[in-house]
Amino acid sequence: AYIDRARSSYDGSFKRNGVDLIEGRAHFVDSHTVSVNGELIRAKHIVIATGARPSIPTIPGAELGGSSDDVFAWEQLPESVAILGAGYIAVELAGVLHALGVKTDLFVRRDRPLRTFDSYIVEGLVNEMEKTGLPLHTHKVPVKLEESEQGITIHFEDGSSHTASQVIWATGRRPNVDGLELEKAGVTLNERGFIQVDEYQNTVVDGIYALGD
């Protein structure tokens, strides 16, 4: 419901500001032309803001877990949840669900969450998690998920396991660039598959920019 209201708000804002909204799948024809539903649209400046989708590991039973997107569709809170991931989405979800009274456990693959953040921020976060009683499990690499009578059981590389009502994958995002035919515009991707940009969000092609996840 929240997401639907947000989208309705955006639609209203577009209309008030004279922005034409064209719904459909777009792809590049050249560096200044895109095709949407067979209609060619030319522009001097083009912004790519197609976002990203959750990246789910390819391990047995991975489909038993949900993603951060699925949380917004919950109609009621689960009794317990295990969150797998070390980024800010994992940390945010763990904090929110824990504060709402859900038995929450956060599992990270290495020694700490938010590894790319400043160490003093991470230390403060970990200390706060300890104070509030939010369990942080380090060096936990999931190898399999399976259904059990108690919920969903996660099996880890070290031989341990954990069972929760819900499992949430928060293990990164994958860019939504499939089908854009970026090569026709000369736009390139980096080694992670995201659109290559500089510090000002310029792609390698003049007049084409990429923003967002």
Automatic annotation (TrEMBL):
Q: Provide the organism lineage as a comma list.
A: Bacteria, Bacillati, Bacillota, Bacilli, Lactobacillales
Task: Give the organism the record lists.
Answer: Streptococcus pneumoniae
A GO cellular component annotated for this chain's UniProt record is: cytosol
Q: What is its EC number?
A: 1.8.1.7
Give start and end of each FAD/NAD(P)-binding domain. 4-213
- Which InterPro entries does UniProt cross-reference here? FAD/NAD-bd_sf, FAD/NAD-binding_dom, GSHR/TRXR-like
Molecular function terms from GO? flavin adenine dinucleotide binding; glutathione-disulfide reductase (NADPH) activity
Co-factor requirement: FAD
The positions making up the signal sequence are none
A single BP term in Gene Ontology = cellular response to oxidative stress
Q: Which keywords fit this entry according to its UniProt record?
A: Disulfide bond, Oxidoreductase, Redox-active center
Enzyme kind, highest EC tier: oxidoreductase
Family recorded in the similarity comment:
Belongs to the class-I pyridine nucleotide-disulfide oxidoreductase family.
**Protein name as catalogued:** Glutathione-disulfide reductase
